[in-house]
Amino acid sequence: MVCKKCETKLSKVAAPDPFTSTSSSVKDGSRKIGENKLLSRPGSSRNRFQPYQGKCKDCKQPVTQNKAKYCHGCAYKKGLCSICGKAILDTTGYVMSAK
In this structure, how many other beta carbons lie within 10 angstroms of the beta carbon of residue 50? Predict the structure, then answer.
């Protein structure tokens, strides 16, 4: 669960869609077809996804997003945004087994 403000911070897909090679950026020559986007973009080494770097604040499991504070399970149980930790869902009326 992610709030509206944090939707822009979500991780992006590393490879471009191969079926959209007719886009204007390819026609202009600004992007090569078949290039590896992880290796060619500037600053890729510092923005790269580190799968074991981030841990959940509650259960200490690895998180799946780059800047996330909570895993998906803990964020849903508490009704929090997994990236910023802001409450976005009222879970008082929910029946959850592990609360």
Answer: 8
CB 72 within 8 A of CB 1: yes
pTM equals 0.59
| Cβ-Cβ contacts under 8 Å for 90 (sequence gap 6 or more) | 79
Half-sphere exposure of 72 (CA within 13 A, CB side): 2
- Tokens of residue 92, six digits: 């008082």
CA 17 to chain CA centroid, Å, is 18
- For the stretch 9-54, pLDDT in tens is 886 666 666 665 555 555 556 667 777 776 776 665 556 666 667 8
Query: Which stretch of DSSP H or E encloses residue 28?
Result: helix 24-28
DSSP H helices in the chain: 24-28, 37-40, 72-78
Contact in structure between 83 and 69 (CB atoms under 8 Å): yes
pLDDT for the residue 93: 86
